[in-house]
Fold each of these.
Amino acid sequence: MDANTLKDQLSTEDVIHFVVEALGSNGNLWDSYGNPIFQTVCHNPPGTGSYKLYYYTDTKTFVCYTECGGGGLDIFALTEKAKGLDFKEAFNFVCRFFGIDTRKKGFEIEQNIQEPIDGDLLKTFEFYDSFNEKQKGKKELPEIPEGFLNFFGNPVTPVEWKREGISPEVLYQFGIRTDGCDKIIIPHRTKDGILRGIRGRTFNPIELANGCKYMPVYVEKTGYGHPLGENLYGLYENQKAIKEVQKIIVYESEKSVLMNNTIYGDLSYAVATCGSNITTSQQQLILESGAKELILAYDRENPIKDGSEENFLKIKAYEEKLLKQVQPLANVMNISIVFDYEGVLEPKMSPIDKGQETLEYLLKRKIKIDCIEQQLKGKRK
Ligand SMILES: [Zn+2]
């Protein structure tokens, strides 16, 4: 597929998805003609620019209304500018995002050509395409037919995650597989086990360098992303343990849930929000899970305590941020938060990334939220 054909085939929805997920605009606004407006990711780091980058749906071009010189950019030119890539790299980047195999077209000839898709799967694509069309603007996505996962071939468990200590049994239990190339495929299910979304964890150096570690999976331009905030990853698999133990531990990423299940097996009461935010829907799911105790175990962002005033303010801001996440549930559950003030973890690490011993060390030191509240109030005066 050449660049112009691809550009023509991308819907406005696809473009929004791309600019948000891959280039890092925090969502989009709309102008009065129905054109989406994004943050100026062309010349600002992700999530920081003002909303002055317009996408004109009729000409499929972006215009940045600042002095950055971004006028009349197509999706590839915007990607070049935003990511500092040349055209070929930007084209490949866009193709990879939308699950289009460029290898067949001679950009990167590799041995590993995918098998032709059989008739049933083609029907699946059509089904999803027409659904995407009908559902525009609606939140709830349909069930993805189970057979769709077969598109990625037999569930070959990814060696990268086995190396990090996730057991093959757990990978199999959660249906984790690879795309046969450099992406780990992560099926997302609702609490009733319905396949609702498919996410990918890439090992492609260009995608990684551009901060696109986790992305919704696209196959031949159809996106299988879903609103992550509507779901709790792992709730389906671990709801029995949560009910039994009456506890729930909330991590940021899918991988942490898989590691938790590797360690604790049938007694794993872990879920992940797949982002550093607990949405109202997720709070509802936590409430209904039967847990009486919630442990928030997000990735380490806090600085290590060193007694300085500047450091104290940073820690305070971090505590307030986490507190805000769980406070709506405070009246109905016991809540504690895992903090790593000693720097046992590297920055951005999940409390479980260094294994069972470190996790349990940190869990012993988790802090009840009323203590945090008191601390914050006390020191403010
Ligand atoms: Zn710009």
Note: Confidence is low (pLDDT under 50) at residues 104-125, 130-139.
Amino acid sequence: MDKKIAKNRIEKLKQEIDYHRRQYHVYDRESISVSALDSLKMELFRLENEFPEFISADSPTQRVGGEALAKFQKVTHRRPMISLYDAFSEEDMRDWEKRNINYLAERGESLSSLYYCELKLDGLAANLRYEKGIFVQGATRGDGQIGEDITLNLRTIESLPLRLFKPAEKELVALGLKEKDIKNLFYLLAEGVIEVRGETIMSKQTLAALNKQYALEGKPLLANTRNGAAGSLRQLDPQIAAERHLEFYAYDLILGDYERGEIVLSRAAADKLVELLGFKRVRDNKLCHGLAEVFVFQRYWEKNKDKLPFFIDGVVVKYDDLSLWPRLGTVGKAPRYMVAYKFSAEQATTKLIDVVWQVGRTGVLTPTAILEPVKVGGVTIGRSTLHNLDEIERLGLRLGDTVIVERAGDVIPKVVAALPNLRTGKEKVIQAPVHCPRCGAEISRLGDDVAYRCLNKNCYAVALRRLGHFVAKGALDIEGLGPKIVEQLVNEGLLEDVADIFALRREDLIGLNGFAEKKAEKLVAAIKSRQEVALSRFLFALGISHIGEESAQTIAVYLSKFLSSPIGRPQELLRVAKKCRLDDWSALADIGPVVAASLFNFWHSQETAALFTKFEKSGLSLLLPLPASGALAGKTFVLTGSLNSLTRQEAKDKIKAKGGKTQESVSRLVDYLVVGEAPGSKLREAEKLGVKILTETEFLKLIQ
Ligand SMILES: [Zn+2]
């Protein structure tokens, strides 16, 4: 990227990110999804890495945490409320484990691979302080050191105990607590300080019920459960928090201080202990032996998260052995002993490169967005449907825009918004085409129909038939590209003509209905395996009228004489074939004047020229037929007049048996003219073209 462009883009990104940040963190309004915002931050981060001279102190990449609102009292956390490292892939997780192993190995210690995995609730974190077992203060995370005092609001939460329960000794023994620790815990409950951390959330059900009510009352709706929770806790009037029905789930317990390891228990036991103290906890949390089990757990919940009553955005993976926590310690602002293994972001930002129009079965034109490939929902996508021109207008899209794309679960990816503030002024308005991109017929918009249509009734059927023929057995024979898939790809706008097949990419297919990653990869591999194809098969596959498998073979043998052996390029083939005159074609065996005309027209059409340009670009190579074996291999004979010792059919069979070929008329490509009694005009023709002439005796000698 050019320096000036980079500087501009960085400025614009900074403003855009700051605008959405304020909306989100100051006003609890979600003007853009967290993942889309992250995507913008990532782009800014990469640009700043490339052009460090443009990094400024006010850049969002230089910020750590949020700041407390002035209206609440500030609370200094006894122990900082740490933020977590994010991992987005199994590779990230393995790296995290490896770093920890190395870190401890340097100190002569070893690491356990027992992990406690907890669902990562998406709400507002809070720290609760209990003195002598009584809830005295609750605070938000704030910047990690100083938070806001939201005690009054937290007190309205029914699932938050105002006084801690005292568990029975038996229950504590069952959790593995030693006698000394039990004594210590009872002391803390009666005389000391216990802090509990957890997530304040709004359930999906509560959000739906509240929004229904607010809609009736004409009040603004809550954007999502996270905003529902955060917004409620930040209200100065606790009455509002009370009516929001929030819930509190505990996920951390500070008995003394972990960093000094005062009470010895495992993380799994601590999780159970909070329940004994009177808190709600996530029952689906699980102890995992090794990262492989962690991966299974994380994948399971990524798939099944919608079944939960609350939103989660990943899994927090913690070392179960709490004695490891102080030994691993923290690096920067985040601890080494736990990591947030996030689900794939469902939204990301990217550039709209182009809009292509596809023609469906009914002739309706549908626009498809061609995007700069971007990872969203765990896979890389390069295109997405835009439905119709009205949708483009509704989104206010222009070519070159930065857009937000979304892929939730197995739903087909879509463009959900454009970010017009990031424009440079070079973006272009998107218009519907005037002619059909497939057949060139006129396009019209009928009445108040939102759709544009191709008026050629055969447009779709012809395209389907051509594509179907191209990939069928005997032609390119591409596995996994049956008629149904061909039709689907045509409908998705991925295939307009046969050359498009070679341009299919993994990221085009993923996200289509029925295309999981594996199926997409398999199909792309099957297509790739046909990038080197026998010339005869290719010629047959083109679907030139009247050309069957056998005549395709004849044409292949004929044309290969002019092509560089053993592999021809599409453009070379086109050049050679275009040089052939009508008579050259009709001179070939089994090719009459009608077929010759069809061949001639095919090679000289503009459509063919366009097709071959695409074939050439796709790297297609054509394997030329090997010369036939036998004494007469590669030689072509024409017979004229009648022979004495054998019939014309017998003569033809003998030539074939020796690897030679026969044809009916003389051309410059014929090697021998065999002359019997009473020869016709072929003799004169052969003499004119300088073709070698054989008498019957000479011919018999040759075929012996
Ligand atoms: Zn058309």
Note: The first strand starts at residue 74 and ends at 76.
Amino acid sequence: MNNPPPPPPLAALDEGRRLLAQPLLPLVRLLNLLYLTGPFGTIEELLTQLSEPVETAGLRYPDPRAVLNPLLPQLRELERLKNNDLSAREICDEEGSPLSPLEALELWVSQAVLTRELEALNSLLCAPCRCTLCCTGPSPEMRQEFFEIPLTAPETRLFPLPVIEPLAPPPMQTQQGPAIYHWRSGWSLILPKASTCPQLATDGRCRIYRERPQVCRRPQIFAYVIEKINDGERGRETTLSRFRRRNNLLAVWDCPYVRALQEEIARFAELSGLEPVFRSNKG
Ligand code: SF4
Ligand code: SF4
């Protein structure tokens, strides 16, 4: 169950590959520049001017307005700079020094745009793979005792499972089947060895696909333009809203489409101004 199937023929991945070849961040960076240096009060004002094809970073966007319009909620964050409405969140460089409001805002918008872009991309690439790796616990030969799917509180209602309130990271091998764990820092769906998510149907499909948890929408290419800084200690509440610049795109080898499209993913990262990082998660 845990050995992912071989990747499907490349032709089956064509829709996702088309998005990989045309990343959004080069266009978004150009928009940032135009907005911040131009006389535009709102992002929408600028978008109404983008009626012609745009070329940037060696890419051609035939209809930039159509591409950018769905990103308005993410792009409107830029308006904060002109409105002097900067939030209290802090974004640092790799050494921990705070970045300027402009640099911080650009990173914030890039992270939000890339997260949304990768959600669509990962979904298009996952569907043809007929793989359930993300929805099953470790197989018996794996060293991990369990896999963990972080959930928000409302998402826990999607799973008809017992809720466990551990005082500390527990010995999962004593847990017989999947369960929801309520840590002091949040919620997780825990899938012990050889178990499956209760929403995984026998035909390999997700029974709650349209309302599946956020984490299930985002494997296995991840946006790390910035990363939240936390105390790294499970069970301790954190109210910090601090982030560190990473400028990475993480792709996980376990996934069949990541293995099949390594070069295209690396190129996507490069065009997006990010360092591609490939690594294994399970084994
Ligand atoms: S909710 Fe759906 S996508 Fe998420 S682990 Fe369960 S079956 Fe897989
Ligand atoms: S995201 Fe990749 S590893 Fe996860 S189920 Fe889809 S194809 Fe398999």
Note: The longest helix spans residues 101-126.
Amino acid sequence: MKLTIHGYSTALYATWYFIEELGILFDAGDGVCSSLLGKAGKIKHAFISHADRDHLTGLLQFNQLFAGLKPTIYYPKDSGSFPFLKEFFTKFDPHNTGTNWQEIEDKSIIATKNTIQVEAIENGHVVQPGLLKSLSFKVFETKRKLKSEFANLHKDELINIKKERGDGFLTNEIKRNILSYSADTPIDDYDRYHNSEVLIHEATFLTKEETNTKMWKNKHSSLYEVFEMIANINIDKLILGHFSSRYDQYEIDNKIKKHIQQYNIKIPVYRIPIGNTIKNILAQEPIN
Ligand SMILES: [Zn+2]
């Protein structure tokens, strides 16, 4: 499936990614509506990874403008900020009703369309033992494919078999991980995104040493670690974002190119420059 992904992602300020074909928004930092304008009305499912303000402050305007279209906002089950927001929005914009608020758990699977499922996965960004406060997401597409032994049958025969034995007799389910979104997270394991067709991953810091900075209480990834993971798994396209604005874009791009060379990365790599909204990210020139 072709994915038209629009996004903004600069650490501390705002992060959001909108996937047009899926009607899915991942995170809702400032500027979602002012960048997407009427297109924001196509957001049917907003998955918020955690309650850091740079990932949710766009919700107020989204709710005010589009609550009537009955979107659903999903959030990690133990993030108290969301029920509080819901209550506040209800009082602040009492006429804008219709938004559904749904808490989700680790390994929750939400079917957003007949063929599309979103799986939530607990990540290590916010660590509070026993409480679920931060999530990554994987999007799967399932399709039914005709079993090879029936490939030569005539259409009418297939229709008859289907009537008698059901669709499951004729076809196999093919499930593909068409997109994954790390959200804010340290790299916990390499398997998580193996075989994702598109991976959107955060790279707040350039070096691993910087991920230990005391100033940042929640855990993040470094560009170096992301590339080390990418070199060890199979994905088709990589989108990097959530860079810290402490860096110069030139410095970030040079580091990305250096890693691409060093790890002999053959897949296209895209990045969200600091302070920029990128429309249709995958239609841009990759950095390599
Ligand atoms: Zn963030």
Note: The chain has a mean pLDDT of 95.
